Amino acid sequence: MKSVDLVIVGGGIFGCAIAYYYTRNYPAKSVMVLERKELCNAATSRAAALMTVVRSKQSYIPLSLETRAVIPELEKQLGESLDMKTVGMMHVAASEAREKDLQELMAIAGTYEQPAEWLRADEAMQKAPWLKADEARAIAFLPQEAYCDPYLLGTFFARCAKQQGADIRQGVGVQSMLMEGNTVVGLQTDGGKLYAGKVVIAAGAWSPLLARQAGIGLPMAPVRSQYWITERSSLFPEASPIVLLPDAQAYARPEGGALLFGVRENRSLSLSPDLIPEEITEFSFSPDRGMTDLSEVIERLGRFFPGIYDIGLKYYMAGFSAYTPDGNLSMGVAPGVNNLLLATGCVGAGIAIAGGVGRAFAELAAGRSNPYNFNDFDISRFGKIDPFSQEWLDKCAMARSKKVSG
Ligand SMILES: Cc1cc2nc3c(=O)[nH]c(=O)nc-3n(C[C@H](O)[C@H](O)[C@H](O)COP(=O)(O)OP(=O)(O)OC[C@H]3O[C@@H](n4cnc5c(N)ncnc54)[C@H](O)[C@@H]3O)c2cc1C
Protein backbone atom coordinates (compact mmCIF):
# COMPACT_ATOMS: atom_id res chain seq x y z
CA MET A 1 0.00 0.00 0.00
CA LYS A 2 1.50 3.27 -1.10
CA SER A 3 1.97 6.28 1.14
CA VAL A 4 3.08 9.82 0.21
CA ASP A 5 3.55 13.09 2.06
CA LEU A 6 1.02 14.90 -0.10
CA VAL A 7 -1.64 13.84 -2.56
CA ILE A 8 -3.43 16.34 -4.78
CA VAL A 9 -6.80 15.46 -6.30
CA GLY A 10 -7.18 17.13 -9.69
CA GLY A 11 -4.66 17.99 -12.38
CA GLY A 12 -6.08 21.36 -13.42
CA ILE A 13 -3.95 24.46 -13.12
CA PHE A 14 -4.38 24.59 -9.32
CA GLY A 15 -3.27 21.00 -8.77
CA CYS A 16 -0.32 21.39 -11.15
CA ALA A 17 0.80 24.68 -9.61
CA ILE A 18 0.65 23.26 -6.07
CA ALA A 19 2.75 20.27 -7.16
CA TYR A 20 5.29 22.64 -8.74
CA TYR A 21 5.81 24.78 -5.62
CA TYR A 22 5.77 21.80 -3.29
CA THR A 23 8.48 19.96 -5.22
CA ARG A 24 10.48 23.16 -5.68
CA ASN A 25 10.33 24.25 -2.04
CA TYR A 26 10.35 20.81 -0.40
CA PRO A 27 12.34 18.48 -2.69
CA ALA A 28 12.76 15.83 0.00
CA LYS A 29 8.99 15.30 0.31
CA SER A 30 6.88 13.07 -1.92
CA VAL A 31 3.82 14.27 -3.83
CA MET A 32 1.35 12.59 -6.13
CA VAL A 33 -1.18 14.33 -8.40
CA LEU A 34 -4.21 12.25 -9.36
CA GLU A 35 -6.10 13.35 -12.46
CA ARG A 36 -8.88 11.10 -13.72
CA LYS A 37 -8.80 12.46 -17.29
CA GLU A 38 -5.90 14.37 -18.85
CA LEU A 39 -4.12 17.26 -17.21
CA CYS A 40 -5.91 20.59 -17.59
CA ASN A 41 -8.79 19.05 -19.55
CA ALA A 42 -11.61 20.85 -17.71
CA ALA A 43 -11.92 24.55 -16.78
CA THR A 44 -8.25 25.25 -17.30
CA SER A 45 -8.05 24.58 -21.03
CA ARG A 46 -11.30 26.49 -21.63
CA ALA A 47 -10.30 29.77 -20.00
CA ALA A 48 -10.07 33.11 -21.77
CA ALA A 49 -6.97 33.38 -19.61
CA LEU A 50 -6.91 37.08 -18.80
CA MET A 51 -4.14 37.30 -16.24
CA THR A 52 -5.49 40.40 -14.58
CA VAL A 53 -3.30 41.74 -11.79
CA VAL A 54 -4.94 45.04 -10.85
CA ARG A 55 -8.40 44.38 -9.41
CA SER A 56 -10.78 45.98 -6.96
CA LYS A 57 -10.57 42.78 -4.88
CA GLN A 58 -7.11 43.46 -3.54
CA SER A 59 -6.65 40.13 -1.81
CA TYR A 60 -6.22 38.54 -5.28
CA ILE A 61 -3.40 40.85 -6.32
CA PRO A 62 -0.44 39.23 -4.50
CA LEU A 63 -1.55 35.85 -5.90
CA SER A 64 -1.54 37.16 -9.48
CA LEU A 65 1.80 38.89 -8.95
CA GLU A 66 3.24 35.52 -7.97
CA THR A 67 1.98 34.01 -11.26
CA ARG A 68 3.80 36.76 -13.14
CA ALA A 69 6.95 36.24 -11.13
CA VAL A 70 7.05 32.47 -11.63
CA ILE A 71 6.47 32.37 -15.40
CA PRO A 72 10.05 33.35 -16.32
CA GLU A 73 11.30 30.63 -13.93
CA LEU A 74 9.13 27.98 -15.60
CA GLU A 75 10.27 29.16 -19.02
CA LYS A 76 13.90 29.01 -17.98
CA GLN A 77 13.55 25.54 -16.49
CA LEU A 78 11.88 24.16 -19.62
CA GLY A 79 13.86 26.21 -22.12
CA GLU A 80 10.58 27.17 -23.81
CA SER A 81 8.51 30.31 -24.06
CA LEU A 82 4.96 30.57 -22.74
CA ASP A 83 4.44 33.33 -25.29
CA MET A 84 2.40 35.36 -22.83
CA LYS A 85 0.78 38.32 -24.57
CA THR A 86 1.50 41.45 -22.57
CA VAL A 87 -0.78 43.67 -24.63
CA GLY A 88 -2.11 45.72 -21.70
CA MET A 89 -5.69 46.23 -20.58
CA MET A 90 -8.04 49.14 -21.17
CA HIS A 91 -10.83 49.83 -18.71
CA VAL A 92 -13.62 51.88 -20.29
CA ALA A 93 -16.02 53.60 -17.87
CA ALA A 94 -19.18 55.12 -19.35
CA SER A 95 -21.23 55.87 -16.22
CA GLU A 96 -20.63 57.84 -13.07
CA ALA A 97 -20.53 54.71 -10.92
CA ARG A 98 -18.00 52.94 -13.14
CA GLU A 99 -15.90 56.09 -13.42
CA LYS A 100 -15.68 56.15 -9.63
CA ASP A 101 -14.68 52.46 -9.63
CA LEU A 102 -12.00 53.23 -12.17
CA GLN A 103 -10.56 56.05 -10.10
CA GLU A 104 -10.32 53.64 -7.18
CA LEU A 105 -8.70 51.05 -9.43
CA MET A 106 -6.07 53.54 -10.54
CA ALA A 107 -5.25 54.22 -6.89
CA ILE A 108 -4.89 50.45 -6.36
CA ALA A 109 -2.56 50.24 -9.38
CA GLY A 110 -0.42 52.90 -7.69
CA THR A 111 -0.38 51.00 -4.39
CA TYR A 112 0.99 47.91 -6.16
CA GLU A 113 3.34 49.96 -8.36
CA GLN A 114 1.64 48.79 -11.53
CA PRO A 115 1.97 51.24 -14.42
CA ALA A 116 -1.32 52.87 -15.42
CA GLU A 117 -2.34 55.92 -17.41
CA TRP A 118 -5.49 57.72 -18.50
CA LEU A 119 -6.31 57.71 -22.21
CA ARG A 120 -8.45 59.96 -24.38
CA ALA A 121 -11.21 58.28 -26.40
CA ASP A 122 -9.36 58.77 -29.69
CA GLU A 123 -6.21 57.16 -28.24
CA ALA A 124 -8.26 54.23 -26.99
CA MET A 125 -9.94 53.70 -30.35
CA GLN A 126 -6.58 53.82 -32.07
CA LYS A 127 -5.33 51.00 -29.83
CA ALA A 128 -8.49 48.92 -30.35
CA PRO A 129 -10.00 49.81 -33.76
CA TRP A 130 -13.21 47.84 -33.04
CA LEU A 131 -14.01 49.95 -29.98
CA LYS A 132 -16.47 52.84 -29.93
CA ALA A 133 -15.38 54.83 -26.91
CA ASP A 134 -16.85 58.27 -27.55
CA GLU A 135 -19.42 57.84 -24.75
CA ALA A 136 -16.72 56.98 -22.24
CA ARG A 137 -16.33 59.23 -19.19
CA ALA A 138 -12.90 57.80 -18.36
CA ILE A 139 -10.52 55.29 -19.91
CA ALA A 140 -7.52 53.77 -18.17
CA PHE A 141 -4.72 51.73 -19.70
CA LEU A 142 -2.60 49.27 -17.73
CA PRO A 143 0.23 48.21 -20.05
CA GLN A 144 1.46 45.28 -17.97
CA GLU A 145 -1.79 43.29 -18.07
CA ALA A 146 -1.66 40.15 -20.21
CA TYR A 147 -3.30 36.95 -21.37
CA CYS A 148 -1.81 33.56 -22.13
CA ASP A 149 -2.56 30.05 -23.34
CA PRO A 150 -4.03 28.52 -20.15
CA TYR A 151 -3.39 24.90 -21.13
CA LEU A 152 0.25 25.73 -21.74
CA LEU A 153 0.63 27.48 -18.39
CA GLY A 154 -1.03 24.59 -16.55
CA THR A 155 1.16 22.03 -18.24
CA PHE A 156 4.29 24.18 -17.71
CA PHE A 157 3.61 23.86 -13.98
CA ALA A 158 3.06 20.11 -14.37
CA ARG A 159 6.17 19.50 -16.46
CA CYS A 160 8.40 21.45 -14.08
CA ALA A 161 6.83 19.63 -11.11
CA LYS A 162 7.54 16.32 -12.79
CA GLN A 163 11.16 17.28 -13.43
CA GLN A 164 11.39 18.12 -9.72
CA GLY A 165 10.08 14.72 -8.69
CA ALA A 166 6.27 14.94 -8.62
CA ASP A 167 4.48 11.70 -9.44
CA ILE A 168 1.71 12.80 -11.80
CA ARG A 169 -0.87 10.15 -12.66
CA GLN A 170 -3.42 10.68 -15.41
CA GLY A 171 -6.42 8.42 -15.83
CA VAL A 172 -6.61 7.76 -12.08
CA GLY A 173 -9.81 8.90 -10.39
CA VAL A 174 -10.41 9.41 -6.70
CA GLN A 175 -13.56 7.74 -5.46
CA SER A 176 -13.62 8.62 -1.81
CA MET A 177 -11.73 9.98 1.17
CA LEU A 178 -10.30 7.65 3.78
CA MET A 179 -11.17 9.10 7.18
CA GLU A 180 -10.27 8.19 10.75
CA GLY A 181 -12.65 10.28 12.82
CA ASN A 182 -11.99 13.90 11.87
CA THR A 183 -8.72 13.14 10.14
CA VAL A 184 -8.18 12.43 6.46
CA VAL A 185 -5.60 9.68 6.11
CA GLY A 186 -5.75 9.03 2.38
CA LEU A 187 -7.89 8.29 -0.63
CA GLN A 188 -9.64 5.41 -2.28
CA THR A 189 -8.57 5.61 -5.92
CA ASP A 190 -9.34 3.58 -9.04
CA GLY A 191 -6.00 1.91 -8.43
CA GLY A 192 -6.52 1.10 -4.73
CA LYS A 193 -5.91 2.86 -1.43
CA LEU A 194 -3.37 5.65 -1.17
CA TYR A 195 -2.29 6.97 2.24
CA ALA A 196 -1.04 10.53 2.62
CA GLY A 197 0.09 12.96 5.29
CA LYS A 198 -1.92 15.73 3.66
CA VAL A 199 -4.65 15.77 1.01
CA VAL A 200 -5.44 18.76 -1.21
CA ILE A 201 -8.74 18.80 -3.07
CA ALA A 202 -8.19 20.75 -6.31
CA ALA A 203 -10.99 19.10 -8.25
CA GLY A 204 -12.56 22.25 -9.71
CA ALA A 205 -16.32 22.00 -10.27
CA TRP A 206 -16.42 18.55 -8.67
CA SER A 207 -14.74 19.56 -5.40
CA PRO A 208 -17.95 19.72 -3.29
CA LEU A 209 -18.49 15.98 -3.91
CA LEU A 210 -15.24 15.06 -2.18
CA ALA A 211 -15.57 17.74 0.50
CA ARG A 212 -19.02 16.32 1.36
CA GLN A 213 -17.38 13.01 2.25
CA ALA A 214 -15.34 14.82 4.88
CA GLY A 215 -18.54 16.43 6.22
CA ILE A 216 -17.85 19.83 4.66
CA GLY A 217 -20.47 21.85 2.79
CA LEU A 218 -18.00 23.57 0.46
CA PRO A 219 -19.25 27.08 -0.30
CA MET A 220 -18.99 27.28 -4.09
CA ALA A 221 -21.08 26.28 -7.09
CA PRO A 222 -20.19 25.38 -10.65
CA VAL A 223 -21.42 28.26 -12.81
CA ARG A 224 -21.08 28.38 -16.57
CA SER A 225 -18.73 30.91 -18.16
CA GLN A 226 -18.98 31.37 -21.90
CA TYR A 227 -17.34 33.38 -24.64
CA TRP A 228 -17.38 33.74 -28.40
CA ILE A 229 -14.68 34.30 -30.99
CA THR A 230 -15.42 36.33 -34.10
CA GLU A 231 -14.10 35.75 -37.56
CA ARG A 232 -10.80 37.43 -38.39
CA SER A 233 -10.79 41.09 -39.34
CA SER A 234 -8.37 43.99 -39.59
CA LEU A 235 -10.40 45.53 -36.73
CA PHE A 236 -8.60 43.17 -34.35
CA PRO A 237 -4.83 43.68 -34.52
CA GLU A 238 -3.02 40.97 -32.56
CA ALA A 239 -1.18 43.51 -30.44
CA SER A 240 -4.32 45.42 -29.44
CA PRO A 241 -5.11 45.46 -25.72
CA ILE A 242 -7.59 43.51 -23.67
CA VAL A 243 -10.66 45.73 -23.13
CA LEU A 244 -12.92 45.69 -20.09
CA LEU A 245 -16.35 47.25 -20.51
CA PRO A 246 -17.89 47.22 -17.03
CA ASP A 247 -21.00 49.15 -18.15
CA ALA A 248 -21.68 46.36 -20.63
CA GLN A 249 -20.47 43.66 -18.20
CA ALA A 250 -18.21 42.53 -21.02
CA TYR A 251 -14.58 41.94 -21.87
CA ALA A 252 -12.71 41.32 -25.11
CA ARG A 253 -9.22 40.46 -26.21
CA PRO A 254 -7.48 39.71 -29.50
CA GLU A 255 -7.26 36.06 -30.51
CA GLY A 256 -5.13 35.35 -33.58
CA GLY A 257 -6.53 38.20 -35.69
CA ALA A 258 -10.07 37.71 -34.37
CA LEU A 259 -11.81 39.02 -31.23
CA LEU A 260 -12.61 36.83 -28.23
CA PHE A 261 -15.36 38.36 -26.10
CA GLY A 262 -17.50 37.47 -23.13
CA VAL A 263 -20.59 39.24 -21.88
CA ARG A 264 -22.53 38.43 -18.73
CA GLU A 265 -25.78 36.73 -19.57
CA ASN A 266 -28.96 37.81 -17.78
CA ARG A 267 -29.34 34.40 -16.16
CA SER A 268 -26.16 32.48 -15.48
CA LEU A 269 -26.40 28.72 -15.46
CA SER A 270 -25.37 26.87 -12.33
CA LEU A 271 -25.47 23.13 -11.84
CA SER A 272 -25.22 20.80 -8.89
CA PRO A 273 -21.73 19.19 -8.88
CA ASP A 274 -23.28 15.72 -8.89
CA LEU A 275 -24.90 16.41 -12.27
CA ILE A 276 -21.69 17.34 -14.08
CA PRO A 277 -20.30 14.42 -16.10
CA GLU A 278 -16.71 13.38 -15.42
CA GLU A 279 -15.99 13.91 -19.11
CA ILE A 280 -16.77 17.59 -19.48
CA THR A 281 -17.04 17.41 -23.28
CA GLU A 282 -20.16 15.28 -22.74
CA PHE A 283 -21.98 18.23 -21.20
CA SER A 284 -24.00 20.45 -23.49
CA PHE A 285 -23.45 23.92 -22.05
CA SER A 286 -25.78 25.52 -24.54
CA PRO A 287 -27.56 23.82 -27.43
CA ASP A 288 -27.63 27.09 -29.40
CA ARG A 289 -24.02 27.99 -28.64
CA GLY A 290 -25.08 30.78 -26.32
CA MET A 291 -27.02 32.65 -29.01
CA THR A 292 -30.15 33.22 -26.91
CA ASP A 293 -28.07 34.55 -24.04
CA LEU A 294 -26.06 36.76 -26.37
CA SER A 295 -29.11 38.15 -28.16
CA GLU A 296 -30.61 39.19 -24.80
CA VAL A 297 -27.62 41.36 -23.93
CA ILE A 298 -26.19 42.29 -27.32
CA GLU A 299 -27.32 45.92 -27.09
CA ARG A 300 -25.11 46.40 -24.05
CA LEU A 301 -22.13 45.25 -26.07
CA GLY A 302 -23.20 46.92 -29.32
CA ARG A 303 -22.94 50.32 -27.62
CA PHE A 304 -19.16 49.86 -27.49
CA PHE A 305 -18.69 47.37 -30.35
CA PRO A 306 -21.14 48.34 -33.13
CA GLY A 307 -19.44 45.85 -35.45
CA ILE A 308 -20.87 42.96 -33.41
CA TYR A 309 -24.08 43.08 -35.45
CA ASP A 310 -22.23 42.41 -38.71
CA ILE A 311 -19.31 40.21 -37.82
CA GLY A 312 -19.48 36.43 -38.05
CA LEU A 313 -19.02 34.34 -34.91
CA LYS A 314 -16.76 31.40 -35.61
CA TYR A 315 -16.31 29.77 -32.26
CA TYR A 316 -18.13 29.25 -28.96
CA MET A 317 -16.58 28.09 -25.71
CA ALA A 318 -18.10 27.35 -22.32
CA GLY A 319 -17.00 25.71 -19.11
CA PHE A 320 -17.65 25.66 -15.38
CA SER A 321 -15.92 27.99 -12.96
CA ALA A 322 -16.59 27.80 -9.24
CA TYR A 323 -18.54 30.83 -8.02
CA THR A 324 -19.45 32.12 -4.58
CA PRO A 325 -22.16 34.62 -3.55
CA ASP A 326 -19.65 37.32 -2.57
CA GLY A 327 -17.32 36.89 -5.53
CA ASN A 328 -14.42 35.93 -3.30
CA LEU A 329 -12.43 32.73 -3.59
CA SER A 330 -13.39 29.79 -1.40
CA MET A 331 -10.20 28.07 -0.33
CA GLY A 332 -7.87 27.25 2.52
CA VAL A 333 -7.60 24.85 5.42
CA ALA A 334 -10.67 22.61 5.78
CA PRO A 335 -12.62 23.63 8.87
CA GLY A 336 -12.91 20.88 11.48
CA VAL A 337 -11.02 18.24 9.49
CA ASN A 338 -7.35 17.42 9.99
CA ASN A 339 -4.85 17.13 7.12
CA LEU A 340 -7.27 18.39 4.48
CA LEU A 341 -6.76 21.47 2.30
CA LEU A 342 -9.23 22.88 -0.21
CA ALA A 343 -7.80 24.59 -3.31
CA THR A 344 -11.25 25.34 -4.66
CA GLY A 345 -13.72 28.11 -5.51
CA CYS A 346 -11.71 29.88 -8.23
CA VAL A 347 -14.39 32.49 -9.09
CA GLY A 348 -13.28 32.61 -12.72
CA ALA A 349 -9.79 33.86 -11.86
CA GLY A 350 -7.83 30.63 -11.53
CA ILE A 351 -5.38 31.23 -14.38
CA ALA A 352 -4.42 34.68 -13.14
CA ILE A 353 -3.93 33.59 -9.52
CA ALA A 354 -2.49 30.09 -10.07
CA GLY A 355 1.00 31.06 -8.94
CA GLY A 356 -0.15 32.41 -5.59
CA VAL A 357 -2.54 29.51 -5.05
CA GLY A 358 0.23 27.03 -5.82
CA ARG A 359 2.66 28.70 -3.44
CA ALA A 360 0.09 29.09 -0.65
CA PHE A 361 -1.00 25.45 -0.69
CA ALA A 362 2.55 24.12 -0.99
CA GLU A 363 3.41 25.96 2.22
CA LEU A 364 0.22 24.88 4.02
CA ALA A 365 0.76 21.26 2.92
CA ALA A 366 4.29 21.39 4.33
CA GLY A 367 2.87 22.53 7.67
CA ARG A 368 4.09 26.13 7.25
CA SER A 369 2.04 29.28 7.51
CA ASN A 370 0.29 30.72 4.48
CA PRO A 371 2.42 33.47 2.89
CA TYR A 372 -0.81 35.25 1.83
CA ASN A 373 -3.79 36.62 3.68
CA PHE A 374 -6.71 34.26 2.95
CA ASN A 375 -9.18 35.87 5.38
CA ASP A 376 -11.51 36.93 2.55
CA PHE A 377 -11.51 33.38 1.18
CA ASP A 378 -12.41 31.62 4.45
CA ILE A 379 -14.40 28.43 3.84
CA SER A 380 -16.53 29.10 6.96
CA ARG A 381 -17.60 32.64 6.10
CA PHE A 382 -21.12 31.74 4.94
CA GLY A 383 -21.85 29.56 7.97
CA LYS A 384 -23.36 26.14 7.34
CA ILE A 385 -24.56 25.84 3.76
CA ASP A 386 -25.73 23.07 1.47
CA PRO A 387 -23.78 23.47 -1.80
CA PHE A 388 -26.16 21.06 -3.54
CA SER A 389 -29.36 23.01 -2.74
CA GLN A 390 -31.12 24.99 -5.46
CA GLU A 391 -31.15 28.08 -3.26
CA TRP A 392 -27.36 28.03 -2.97
CA LEU A 393 -26.84 27.30 -6.67
CA ASP A 394 -29.08 30.24 -7.58
CA LYS A 395 -27.20 32.58 -5.24
CA CYS A 396 -23.88 31.71 -6.85
CA ALA A 397 -25.28 32.04 -10.37
CA MET A 398 -26.65 35.46 -9.46
CA ALA A 399 -23.20 36.58 -8.32
CA ARG A 400 -21.87 35.89 -11.80
CA SER A 401 -24.75 37.65 -13.58
CA LYS A 402 -24.00 40.78 -11.56
CA LYS A 403 -20.23 40.68 -12.06
CA VAL A 404 -18.98 43.85 -13.75
CA SER A 405 -15.23 43.19 -13.70
CA GLY A 406 -13.45 41.00 -16.25
C1 LIG B 1 -15.08 29.96 -20.27
C2 LIG B 1 -14.12 30.26 -19.17
C3 LIG B 1 -13.37 31.43 -19.18
C4 LIG B 1 -12.44 31.69 -18.17
N1 LIG B 1 -11.65 32.80 -18.24
C5 LIG B 1 -10.71 33.03 -17.29
C6 LIG B 1 -9.84 34.15 -17.38
O1 LIG B 1 -9.94 34.97 -18.31
N2 LIG B 1 -8.89 34.32 -16.42
C7 LIG B 1 -8.75 33.44 -15.39
O2 LIG B 1 -7.87 33.63 -14.56
N3 LIG B 1 -9.58 32.37 -15.27
C8 LIG B 1 -10.53 32.15 -16.19
N4 LIG B 1 -11.39 31.09 -16.07
C9 LIG B 1 -11.34 30.28 -14.84
C10 LIG B 1 -10.25 29.25 -14.88
O3 LIG B 1 -10.38 28.43 -16.02
C11 LIG B 1 -10.36 28.41 -13.61
O4 LIG B 1 -10.33 29.28 -12.49
C12 LIG B 1 -9.22 27.43 -13.44
O5 LIG B 1 -9.02 26.69 -14.61
C13 LIG B 1 -9.53 26.49 -12.26
O6 LIG B 1 -8.57 25.48 -12.24
P1 LIG B 1 -8.82 24.20 -11.34
O7 LIG B 1 -7.54 23.47 -11.33
O8 LIG B 1 -9.42 24.62 -10.06
O9 LIG B 1 -9.98 23.38 -12.09
P2 LIG B 1 -10.01 22.45 -13.39
O10 LIG B 1 -9.14 22.97 -14.47
O11 LIG B 1 -11.43 22.22 -13.71
O12 LIG B 1 -9.34 21.11 -12.89
C14 LIG B 1 -9.97 20.23 -11.99
C15 LIG B 1 -9.51 18.84 -12.36
O13 LIG B 1 -9.91 17.91 -11.36
C16 LIG B 1 -10.17 16.68 -12.00
N5 LIG B 1 -10.98 15.87 -11.09
C17 LIG B 1 -12.21 16.19 -10.60
N6 LIG B 1 -12.64 15.24 -9.76
C18 LIG B 1 -11.68 14.28 -9.72
C19 LIG B 1 -11.55 13.04 -9.04
N7 LIG B 1 -12.52 12.59 -8.23
N8 LIG B 1 -10.42 12.31 -9.24
C20 LIG B 1 -9.43 12.76 -10.04
N9 LIG B 1 -9.51 13.94 -10.73
C21 LIG B 1 -10.62 14.69 -10.56
C22 LIG B 1 -10.86 17.07 -13.29
O14 LIG B 1 -10.79 16.07 -14.27
C23 LIG B 1 -10.11 18.34 -13.67
O15 LIG B 1 -9.06 18.09 -14.58
C24 LIG B 1 -12.31 30.79 -17.07
C25 LIG B 1 -13.07 29.62 -17.05
C26 LIG B 1 -13.96 29.35 -18.08
C27 LIG B 1 -14.76 28.08 -18.02
UniProtKB/TrEMBL annotation:
Q: Does the keyword Transmembrane helix apply?
A: yes
Limits of the FAD dependent oxidoreductase domain: 5-364
* Keyword Transmembrane among UniProt keywords: yes
| Family annotation (PROSITE patterns) | PROKAR_LIPOPROTEIN
Q: Which UniProt keywords apply?
A: Membrane, Transmembrane, Transmembrane helix
Q: Which GO CC annotations does the UniProt entry carry?
A: cytoplasm
- One family from Pfam that matches here is DAO
Q: What is this protein called?
A: Putative oxidoreductase
What species was this sequence derived from? Flavihumibacter petaseus NBRC 106054
Query: Which taxonomic lineage is given here?
Result: Bacteria, Pseudomonadati, Bacteroidota, Chitinophagia, Chitinophagales
